[in-house]
Write a structure and sequence with these properties.
two-stranded antiparallel ribbon; 3-stranded mixed sheet; UCP006173; 5 strands; single chain; 148 residues; 7 helices; alpha+beta; Puta_zinc/iron-chelating_dom
């Protein structure tokens, strides 16, 4: 099925086809980073430690279609989960559309290039490390503040 022209401007999230839903993802990889939540304040801290499936050079999942078989707790973003997840970055297309905002100017649906997210420095590409190279006890040493 072809994507409808400017579907993100014309249709609410619950009226998107599965292809259009997937096309909203800008490929930044921020949702693939390990996050730490403070038990008392529920504040979420991002780390630069990425899921073992994330290619830290490209910022893309190495096995997206089968990711939940390899990483059972991988988030399947749906309209329902979108309403509950508080840690999505403010630049996230799903969050922005849900909040009634436009896609950022650098989003590939606006630019036509998947590289625009990297050029805008909104991607983890080249800026993360694999969880396989970090001890679980040391993850808190990799907390970073990503520009969102």
């Amino acid at each position: 099925m072809a994507l409808r022209p400017q579907f993100w401007k014309k249709y609410p999230l619950d009226q998107l086809s599965s292809e259009e839903w997937e096309a909203l993802c800008d490929g930044c990889g921020l949702c693939c980073l390990l996050k730490l939540e403070d038990e008392d304040t529920h504040e979420v801290a991002y780390t630069k430690v990425a899921c073992k499936l994330l290619n830290c050079t490209t910022g893309q999942c190495s096995d997206y279609s089968q990711r939940q078989q390899h990483v059972p707790d991988c988030i399947q973003l749906t309209l329902e989960s979108l309403q509950k997840i508080q840690w999505l970055p403010s630049s996230c297309a799903y969050r922005r559309i849900y909040e009634g905002k436009n896609l950022p100017s650098w989003h590939y649906l606006n630019t036509g290039s998947r590289q625009s997210v990297i050029k805008a420095k909104k991607s983890v590409a080249g800026r993360c490390i694999s969880e396989e190279s970090v001890s679980e006890d040391d993850i808190d040493e990799y907390i970073v503040r990503w520009v969102r």
